[in-house]
Amino acid sequence: MKAIILCAGRGTRLKPYTDTYQKAMIPLFGKPLLEYIINGLIFAGFENIILVVGYLKEQVKNYFKNGSKWGIKIEYVTQKKANGTGAAALLCEDLITNNHFFLTWGDILVPYNMYKRIYETYLNNNQHFILLANYTDDPHKGGAIFSKDGYCVDIIEKPAHGKSGSNLNNCGVFIFHREIFEVLRKVKLSNRNEIELTGSIKLGIQDKRWKVRVIKMKKDQFRGDFGNIEVYEQLRKDARWLKKLN
């Protein structure tokens, strides 16, 4: 199975750091953020990784090259237009040769055993669609997840503050069946005029009766959201989170 990491965005919320760094390449104790994510995927057993690049893409390509330094194969796809996570996934369609693939945001970091747990859930339970969720007081900055009996029944992207009715947030770590590509071509554009993966998940659940398995992180587990400058400022000064990755 191939793994896709979305790392094309400009990272406007991380200015001024992203004036000179690609968001996924911001430094953290001697390594770029993206290297921690890749190390997590290697720990889980992935050997073929696709990086969707865009803004300051040469920083990514010059650092990781073909992946041989890490004992893996890395391929690159360029997203020229910032038109959504779903659009980024669609760019990888021709490189996905199996029925399933792994995908994660390039600014989210979770403990390495969570990447492995998702992959093993797929291997052991014949699950076509899996998403990782984390607990939060209010998922208004992400995606509210509603689940029943371990499966997602609805997902709402960036709900109104305090109005979602859910304490589960879309963590941005998934396994998809390639049927997602068909749905991405049909899903309506979001309010931001983008093709969103969350919108396609919602459509698949409603129209195709997808069974999307929800894996919930523990409430006290580490989750680094590096799209948030306050989080980055805190984590780049305090190395204790590194021990929570393994």
UniProtKB/TrEMBL annotation:
One of its GO terms (molecular function) is nucleotidyltransferase activity. The keyword Transferase applies. Keywords: Membrane, Nucleotidyltransferase, Transferase, Transmembrane, Transmembrane helix. It holds the Pfam family NTP_transferase. InterPro entries: GlmU-like (IPR050065), NTP_transferase_dom (IPR005835), Nucleotide-diphossugar_trans (IPR029044). The chain crosses the membrane at residues 36-56. Residues 2-233 form the Nucleotidyl transferase domain. SUPFAM superfamilies: Nucleotide-diphospho-sugar transferases. Gene3D superfamilies: Spore Coat Polysaccharide Biosynthesis Protein SpsA, Chain A. This is Nucleotidyl transferase domain-containing protein. It comes from marine sediment metagenome.
